[in-house]
Amino acid sequence: MKEKKNKKRLTKNKLAEMLQDLFMRNPDKQLSFKQIFKELRLNTHPAKMLAVDAMDDMAWDDFLVKTSENSYKLNLKGQVQEGKFIRKSNGKNSFVPDDGTQPVFVAERNSKSALTGDRVRVTFLARRQKHIKEAVVTEILERARDQFVGRLKVERDFAFLVPDGNVFANNIIIPKNRLKGGKDGEKAVVKVIRWPDDDNRNIVGEVIDVLGQQGDNDVEMHSILAQYGLPYKYPKRVEEAAEKIPAEITEQDYREREDFRDVVTFTIDPRDAKDFDDALSIRQLGKGLWEVGVHIADVSHYVTEGSVIDKEAQKRATSVYLVDRTIPMLPERLCNFICSLRPDEEKLTYSAVFDIDADGEVKSWRLVHAVIKSNRRFAYEEVQQILEDNGVVDGTGQPAPAPGPGGYRGEYATELVTLDSIAKKLRAARFKNGSVKFDREEMRFEVDEKGKPIRCYFKKSKDANKLIEEFMLLANRYVAESVGKVKKGQKAKTLPYRIHDQPDPTKLETLREFAVKFGYKLKTAGTKGEITRSLNKLMDDCQGRREQNLIEMVALRAMMKAKYSVHNIGHYGLAFDYYAHFTSPIRRYPDTMVHRLLTRYQNGGRSANKEYYEELCEHASDMEQIAAQAERDSIKYKMVEFMADKIGNEYEAHISGITSYGIYCEIDENHCEGMVPMHDLDDDYYDFDERNYCLVGRRHHHKYQLGDPVRIVVAKANIEKKQLDFSLAED
């Protein structure tokens, strides 16, 4: 029986697409006409002739190579390069070359099972007319990771892992004898023992840890950590090493340190904090002159370089803060007990001590190893209350008025009001000098004892938070200057700086165009100071308006990410020429590095090896990004969990993001974000205008743009995928 002829007549363009697809699926194969006709089901003479004609054109474009009279092969004689592979869930994968040039598109069929972060070798395809530049992965040089987390599916004869986050096109096959007791539906960590090759397209793995039942809070939090390769358990040998560290302060320690035990000192932290990194001390030196000590936990005194604890801290590089727990960088005995600046306990610190006047002018300063005794542990809310009880109006930038006859009211009120007043002077000077204003609200959840979210809210930075922030910035700046700022002709010693580059000019222009739509102006040309002042004016002008969050979001996208490096370029966002992280060594490894180097240089030591410290900086920057992603995922999970019992509810919302596959909407009442998929917008065919952040209907020209108010219905809450789906409410 003859096959039915193609009902629809094929055009040459359509055939060219089919041929392109066929050759790219078989990049190393020589294909004969016979094979091509069979694969594409071309069974009429005109269709076959059209295909031959199209292949001639493609050979003319250098896309194909003619290997004989009746066969062709994909032209892979293009440029060969090495770099990093980035996988996207929508199939728009890309290759980032080592030389820093623009990323290049890699179709799914040409990705050779490469994953995000893998080092690969690619060949660039000869570019066809009107086609984007494309690359084919020819070799995977180095895998970024070989462990994955997901849900187990156990059948009678075999088992496999369905990974979280659409990592693979196919699931990981697990032999029954490699399940480690894992059961159907449980979450597990799997290590790949065989990657796909030319003979076998399957990925084979073995279970290395069974996390537990899907949906359990602890299991899900551990899954998020495992997904990013972050540790969710503390190694026993490191815990044991920490137990052996003596907590006692020796006589020698007292002799070698400056004594601040009799100076009024306190810590100000979140209510639920257990690790107190920093404390402030204050005493009056004379009329209008104060000594303010910024005392930082002396971690490097207890954690010696190269020790088992140090190696673990270096690997982790940062504490990870998920919605309902902290995964500390240091063992609990160190971060919550020995190093933590707990009230009424004598503690060792590394301290930046400033002689500062009422106008926030630093007259002199010194960096000393000290011993302190905190008088009181304050929560931010308590300090805020004391400030407001004494006439401070939050957010105005105004200090408290002069005290009444009875003085300021509240515990350590005089000290807190004085510190607040100095902090406000420091803050004002910083903005005058070109610092960028970004007071982003943070989403927080209140959870019950089982980790289930019962309330979500946004946490705003108040005057009490800003008080601490300003003194930490002051210490970090002066510490960095003490090493980086040298006389002309001298070479600065090695130090890990916290650096922040200038905004991307293209993204800044996009922000300007976006702000104009809401009636705001932004200067994108001129000096650094002029641009920053214009940016700050924009932030001030949109305060409290419907579009505030959106403008801040687009502005943040224009900003570069801050990172660690020994090559100092200054910090654009803070407008500091020198800036380092010194104030949180309990939760950040770069701070410990800075402490060690400062001590070394104070003792007359030589400059440290630049290359070695740059490697550590790069690792710390990478880990910081990964920790931030894990934190975002935990928030997403809790958000979906919080909304799971609200299916069908209607809410007022606004459009918070626009993509080619749908619109993101944020509920006004609780700030939870979900997506209205593109296929649900069935009143028209919508095109995505990337530059203007909007969707435009082809027929009726209806627009959906950022900031637009919408009414949504909660349609789906997929906890496994951490995904909320909305639909637009009927008018």
What do these coordinates show?
The protein has 731 residues and is an alpha+beta fold. It has six domains: 12-74, Winged helix-like DNA-binding domain superfamily/Winged helix DNA-binding domain (Arc Repressor Mutant, subunit A, Orthogonal Bundle), CATH 1.10.10.10; 80-142, OB fold (Dihydrolipoamide Acetyltransferase, E2P) (Beta Barrel); 147-236, OB fold (Dihydrolipoamide Acetyltransferase, E2P); 237-425 and 453-459, no CATH class; 478-626, no CATH class; 647-728, OB fold (Dihydrolipoamide Acetyltransferase, E2P). Helix content is 30%, strand content 28%. The protein has 17 helices and 34 strands. The protein has a seven-stranded mixed sheet. Strands 6-5-4-7-8 form a five-stranded antiparallel sheet, with no helix packed on it. Helix 1 (12-25) crosses helix 3, helix 4 (217-227) runs antiparallel to helix 17 (610-643) and helix 11 crosses helix 12 (463-484). The radius of gyration is 30 Å and the shape is globular. The two termini are 56 Å apart. The model is unreliable at 1-7 (pLDDT under 50).
Explain briefly what this protein structure is:
With 731 residues, this protein is α+β, with helices and mostly antiparallel strands.
What are the SSEs and their pairings?
Elements (H helix, E strand, L loop, with lengths): L11 H14 L4 E3 H7 L5 H16 L3 E5 L2 E4 L5 E7 L6 E5 L6 E3 L12 E6 L10 E8 L4 E8 L4 E5 L8 E3 L11 E9 L8 E11 L3 H11 L8 H8 L7 H6 L1 E2 L5 E5 L8 E9 L2 E9 L1 H4 L5 H9 L3 E3 L2 E3 L4 H7 L7 E12 L4 E12 L2 E4 H10 L23 H20 L9 E6 L5 E7 L3 H22 L12 E3 L5 H12 L11 H14 L6 H11 L4 E3 L23 H14 L7 H34 L6 E10 L2 E6 L5 E5 L8 E4 L4 E4 L5 E3 L3 E10 L4 E6 L3
Helix pairs in contact: 1-3, 4-17, 11-12, 13-15
